[in-house]
Each structure stands twice: as structure tokens, then as C-alpha cells.
Amino acid sequence: MEALSVRYSQIFWDFDGTIMNTYPSMVEAVVKALTQMGISEFEIDDGEIYEAMRQSDLETALTQASAMYNLDKAALKDRYEANEKSMVKTAKPFLGVPEILQFVVDNGGRNFLLTHRDQSALKGLEAERLASFFTGTVTKDQPFPRKPNPASLESLMTTYVVDKDAAMMVGDRNLDVEAGHNAGIAGALFDPDHLIRVYSNPEIRVSQMPELEEWLEH
User: What's an example Gene Ontology biological process for this entry (predicted)?
Assistant: First the structure.
């Protein structure tokens, strides 16, 4: 089926914070790890942890937390990962995600997943009945450098013969947009809480998925 008249028909999606709202579970896992290491909940600023994750990444949040509470970062990360495995299973898609994935497919396009998360991302898609919307995926389990390096994107585009002019990367951080631009495609920034200091020059910045769907349609 040929793509209909949409701005971009080949959409590459980030997972955490874009498809699925995993940040609450991730923050909860960090807070639990800190309390397990002897830090009182009253001392923990979960808002600060969240902002570090959103504006930078998980590693930055763990680095800041370990420095603030004088803890070993490796030990904190180990506890976080143990907690997060079960907690993240409760994450749900952002409002409008199933609809925009369906919209892409209905208009003859394809969705691809590009995530730093492991196979649990695919299980999350399956649990929410979203997996069938995706044509191809790249996860942490494949040996690609992390975004904004474009290697993983380029691999998907080569494998599935994607026209760069029809392609766009969608994510919730600057590095997602940069990965798209580095691969020679457009980038959209999903910023639901307006926390991102934007320097990546996205083609569009939205706070809700229906906004992005409407923009793609015109």
C-alpha cells in the first residue's frame, strides 16, 4: 500500500517517555534504591530525579543522586535495576499513542522502535497490544552505539529500505532529535511537561500525541 498525503510516513519511535510513560516507575525505582541504601524518604527530592532523567538521562540522575547522598554509584545502579524490572511493568502508553500508531499504518506508513531499553520494551508493547503496529525494532540487546549516534537508525533504514525524505524520529529528548538529524531525517520532540531546554532544532515540538498526529496529517 502506498503512503497517502502525510508529512512523514516512516516514523521511528523512542520508547521510554515517548511511547510509554515509564518515568514514574523509573523515579520510584531510584527512590526505593536510595531508601534501601539508608537514605530517608524525607531527604529525597523525586522531582529533581525526574528532571535529571528528562533533561539528560538515567545515568545523569544516578550520578547526581550518588554524589548528593555520598553513595557508590555502581551499587545504587544495581539496586535501581533490580527494582525497576518489576516496577516498569505497570507503565502505560501516553494518551494518543495507540491512535497515532494506527494513523501511521492506516496511511500506508510504517512504525519502527529505536530504544536504549532491552527486550522488556518489546514485552511492554505486547502487553499493551501495540507490537503489531511496528515493522522493525532496535533494542539495547543489539550492538549499536547509543543515540545520538545514528548507526542504529541507519541500520533500520537500510534493512527496511526507508526513504529518508519520508522519515522522522520521534523522542522526548534532544538526543532523539539529534539521532534523526545525524541520520539525515527529520526529528520531532515530545515534551509533555515542557521541561526540555531545546537545542536540537526539531521540525516540531509537541506536548501531546494528538498534536503530532494532526501535524502529520497536514
Answer: DNA repair
